[in-house]
Amino acid sequence: MYKSLIRPLLFKFDPEKVHYFTFDFLKSFCRIPGAIDFLKSKFLLQDKRLEREVFGLKFPNPVGLAAGFDKDAKLYKELSALGFGFIEVGTVTPKPQPGNEKKRLFRLPEDSAIINRMGFNNEGVEKMVERLRKNTDVLIGGNIGKNKVTPNENAVDDYLYSFEKLFDQVDYFVVNVSSPNTPNLRELQGKEPLKKLLNSLQQKNDQKAKPKPILLKIAPDLTDEQLLDIIEIVKGTGIAGVIATNTTISREGIHSENKNETGGLSGKPLTKRSTEVIRFLSEKSNKAFPIIGVGGIHTPEDAIEKLEAGASLVQLYTGFIYEGPALIKRINQEILKKGI
Q1: pTM score, two decimals?
Q2: 85 assigned ligand-binding residue
Q3: In the chain, what percentage of residues exceed pLDDT 90?
Q4: Beta strands in the chain (DSSP E)
Q5: Where in the numbering of this chain does the Dihydroorotate dehydrogenase catalytic domain appear (predicted)?
């Protein structure tokens, strides 16, 4: 029903407006008594065999929602009712910022892809903290970034600020230095600035009574040499793991008319490359740290490939938009069937 009726209707309208319309609709629908339970009965698959313990956290199932969808933690409870085992909110910055000028979100239906150049549009970490204080049962990841106006030499301060503010409200942190939509942000993926940033965060983390897992989200456009540096940095800084991968700036093999729009590309064109990065990190590190696999998961088979390549968990974003919420349950059913 979603792909035959709902998606064609939604795809007739501007993608960013549809995103906010869908948020408002789902929020309103879930205010109806029994609506949350109805969604869970239709989409949530509960089975002990799906539970995963990764970096010290117990996940009810290994399929999560990637950052970028619920940027301001406005809908995490309702989204979790669709069957996700965990929700990653953000990317959030210390101060509110509007992001890049519109139009900044583009569908590429011929390629089952999306290009975005949103630019970390969000209401700021203070607002996120207020909303997450209401959370009682959803496992939450906090994806943190720097404000656009913050120069790279001061970027550590932005990440530390959001880390401190969010510490009591999230279960794990993700350091986003790999978005292509904030000027010069990817320069922080360089070996020395990245070591400085992650060491600063981990040192602050180690001062806590109960430290939280810190993960690094990396770009799919890194070379093998750069990926080897990532392995060395993760081991050296002692952070918990890696999310592979963010969106790509590559347009190889893209056919849709919007292919020349600037921004990060996500969806099916990323399937193969993100899996290659997962496998490379897993094999070259000898499975030294957990990996969350994200990028181009549109079928249960896509998710299985990433898990078999070395991912401990997976996340959806573009596949969720193109395939609908039933994809989550289908992936979990296939995981049970395969006994993974």
Answers
A1: 0.96
A2: no
A3: 93
A4: 52-54, 57-59, 63-65, 86-92, 105-108, 113-116, 140-144, 172-176, 214-218, 241-244, 264-267, 291-294, 313-316
A5: 50-337
CB 87 within 8 A of CB 64: yes
pLDDT band for position 310 (cuts 50, 70, 90): very high
CATH code, domain carrying 270: 3.20.20.70
Q: Any known ligand binding at 120?
A: yes
Structural domain of residue 18, as residue ranges? 2-338
Q: Which amino acid is at 169?
A: Q
Distance CA 38, CA 81 (A): 9
Task: State the angle between helix axes of 224-237 and 191-206 in degrees (0 to 180), rounded to the nearest 10.
Answer: 20
* Catalytic option among 179, 274, 282, 285: 179
Determine whether the annotation assigns residue 247 to a binding site.
yes
For 285-335, give the secondary structure using H, E and C: CCCCCCEEEECCCCCHHHHHHHHHHCCCEEEECHHHHHHCCHHHHHHHHHH
CA dihedral 13, 14, 19, 24 (to 10 degrees): -60
SS3 141: strand
Spatial separation of the C-alpha atoms in residues 188 and 186, rounded to whole Å:
5
Contact between residue 201 and residue 175 where contact means Cβ atoms under 8 Å apart: yes
Number of domains in the chain: 1
Distance between CA 128 and CA 108 in Å, rounded?
31
330 is in an annotated binding site: no
Residue 86: phi, psi to the nearest 5? -160, 155
The verdict on whether 274 is a catalytic residue reads: no
